[in-house]
């Protein structure tokens, strides 16, 4: 099977990044979202990424224009799915939304199309069960910011075929990524570690061990993380972080009980960059500039 057209379902931070690397990798890309305003924001973000890549010499102007022209932004899932050889779902980590999305994709796409989920914790076996093609369903866990992070964590479901894993590896390599194939288990490898770090950071903040800025700086410089846990949490969305922890707490036990302070932030609507305030206040232009520099979407 040859993959020419990739559809990304969901145009948030992850979906935008995935669409960008797919276009740079030479694929025709369809970005789908039910929200037209979200699509417009995604287009602006992706175009800004091309501009940044050109300025930094990561991509030529000619290649950037070619890749940019290969991207289409649509709100109609059915029409996009009908043209896709490969779909990457990047909707919220809520199983009911995943279920609805995959049932529709199974109905609208060519039977040979591969359906990948960009889940960071959920079971590709369960998600595959929402379709009539579980052999063509797989998890591709991208990392934020997608264009900078080299890894895709790939998780096979119980029924995922060898052919599907081979094609996924080829697609990932064309996007400029390396892959690790891990066994299905809640949180896989990276999300279990990341959830622990982010949750413990909130516990330390709650205990007064240090300020958010000092804790982030300690993790970045002391452990060589590209982004501290609070900056990353604000970028991903603290509601997303909380949902992941709740799922891991439910499936893996007390080690993953969400920090009370994280719960309080989410209840207050302080979800991060997308709401203008999370751990950091994004009306503070210096903080905004620091975080923005860290997660620039570059190749």
Can you characterise this structure?
The chain has about 300 residues and is an alpha/beta fold. The protein has helices at about 15-25, 35-55, 60-70, 75-85, 95-110, 125-130, 160-175, 190-205, 210-220, 230-235, 240-250, 260-265, 285-295; strands at about 5-10, 30, 70-75, 85-90, 115, 135-140, 150-155, 180. Strand 4 (about 85-90), helix 5 (about 95-110) and strand 5 (about 115) form a beta-alpha-beta unit. The longest helix is centred in the first third of the chain and has 20 residues, at about 35-55.
Helical content band: 40-55%
Radius of gyration: 19 Å
Low-pLDDT stretches are: 291-299
Helix/sheet category: alpha/beta
Major sheet size, sense and barrel closure: 8 strands, mixed
Helix/strand order: EHEHHEHEHEHEEHEHHHHHH
User: Within the largest sheet, what's the order of strands?
Assistant: 3-2-1-4-5-6-7-8
How much of the sequence lies in strands comes to 5-15%
Task: Please give the alpha-carbon distance between the first and last residues.
Answer: 27 Å
- The count of helical stretches stands at 13
Give the CA-based shape: globular
Strand count:
8
- The average pLDDT is 92
């Amino acid at each position: 099977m040859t993959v020419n057209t990739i559809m990304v379902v969901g145009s948030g931070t992850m979906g935008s990044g995935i669409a960008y690397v797919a276009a740079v990798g030479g694929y025709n890309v369809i970005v789908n979202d039910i929200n037209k305003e979200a699509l417009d924001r995604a287009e602006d973000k992706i175009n800004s990424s091309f501009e940044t890549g050109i300025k930094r010499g990561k991509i030529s102007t000619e290649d950037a224009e070619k890749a940019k022209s290969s991207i289409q932004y649509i709100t109609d899932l059915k029409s996009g799915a009908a043209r896709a050889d490969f779909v990457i779902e990047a909707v919220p980590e809520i199983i009911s939304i995943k279920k609805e999305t995959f049932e529709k994709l199974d109905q609208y796409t060519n039977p040979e199309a591969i359906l990948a989920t960009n889940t960071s914790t959920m079971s590709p076996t369960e998600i595959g069960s929402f379709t009539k093609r579980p052999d063509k369903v797989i998890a591709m866990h991208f990392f934020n910011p997608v264009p900078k992070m080299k890894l895709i964590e790939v998780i096979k479901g119980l029924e995922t075929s060898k052919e599907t894993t081979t094609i996924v590896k080829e697609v990932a390599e064309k996007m400029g990524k390396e892959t690790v194939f891990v066994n299905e288990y809640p949180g896989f490898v990276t999300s279990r570690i990341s959830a622990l770090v982010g949750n413990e950071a909130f516990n330390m903040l709650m205990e007064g061990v240090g300020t958010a800025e000092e804790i982030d700086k300690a993790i970045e410089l002391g452990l060589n993380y590209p982004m501290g846990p609070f900056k990353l949490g604000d970028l991903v969305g603290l509601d997303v972080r909380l949902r992941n922890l709740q799922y891991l707490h439910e499936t893996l036990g007390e080690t993953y009980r969400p920090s009370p302070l994280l719960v309080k932030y989410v209840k207050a609507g302080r979800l991060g960059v997308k709401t203008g305030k999370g751990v950091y206040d994004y009306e503070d232009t210096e903080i905004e500039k620091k975080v923005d520099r860290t997660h620039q979407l570059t190749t």
